Predict the structure.
Amino acid sequence: MDNRAPGTPETPDSADGPGEPGRSYAEPPPLPLAGLTVVAVEQAVSAPFATRQLADLGARVIKVERPDGGDFARGYDTAAGGMASHFVWANRGKESLALDLKDPRGREVLHGLLADADVFVQNLAQGAAARLGLDAAALCARYPRLVAVDISGYGPEGPYAHKRAYDMLVQCEAGLVSVTGTPERPVKAGIPAADIAAAMYAFSGVLAALLRRGTTGRGGPVEVSMLDALAEWMGHPLHHTMHGGEQPVRTGLAHAVIAPYDAYATADGDRVLLSVQNDREWRRLALMVLERPDLAEDPAYATNAARTRGREKTDAVVAEALGRLGADEAIGRLEAAGIACARLNSVARLAAHPQLEARDRWREVTSPVGPLRALLPPIVLPGGPQPCMGAVPGLGEHTDALLRALGMTDAQVSALRRDGVIA
């Protein structure tokens, strides 16, 4: 049976065409979420980063912000050419609507947008969305095709439901900090791990709910909590502790049960990490990198169990050998020996990483302060169109256009602005 639309030309079979195996296309398919509209009442990181993923894949994302300053992440710093680095990272490709949702007229505007929206995402303080009638359950009852996402710190019920839930606090509650750092001192992750975890589960939850809507015709609520998301990411230490009875110790860059596995200083001031996974690799390391053939079969080093028991001696011989080499020479020897290795890069070095450059992973996005460099999103669709890396919006940049699209007159828009309902 031919399901092509009338007039659709046949396309020749091709073993390497994009999309369906054995089929090629005259034009690449559209971005997966093209034609979908997302409305987000969002702030900080978790919800904005989730909806940015949707925007990158082609969805129209309307970001609703407070008129008096907007998303408070706009004020975190001014490092990105005068804009906040968090905000630039998590909010490209969106339209900004500055709207006071405490005013009934503001909520009326929001419902005008929701009537035609596919997805709604919010991460207001626990209970705030429900007080405004904007919780997922209420909205899905009113708009049956809507996928509505509530992102919270600890979930909608339980003794922690109303606790403040900043990223660092959730990292602590989830035990991540207890397994991160050195034996002497726990440390939080250097990125907002709880926010990012919640964002990515919200993103995948939206995609799953949209697939379900394609089958049933109905959207439905999606709930994600930062604690639930990060607790899932704690799977290895959690299961190790629950089933083995002992929490993994903090080891800095080292490994609790493998040696050598650490970062070692080189002669030019860099640090090189290496990981010896088995005894065959140790022998190659001893012969080709350390230039100590006597250590290849020495009982004190020949097995991982022995190297781990004598970790200080193991690390000392590796450190002494690498300390005579520059980082480039050390990496070259390790790679020639088939030993897993890496540089301990700074963030500045990441920004100039040769692998990202070679794979053409950088683009420029526009913003109110001019063009800004940004990475392509990690999801690659070979043979398809480039991700939609739209501009970073100014606060309220799209307010007038959105209200006029809802049918408001200039006089009505001016009245809302005069009363502080919009900005």
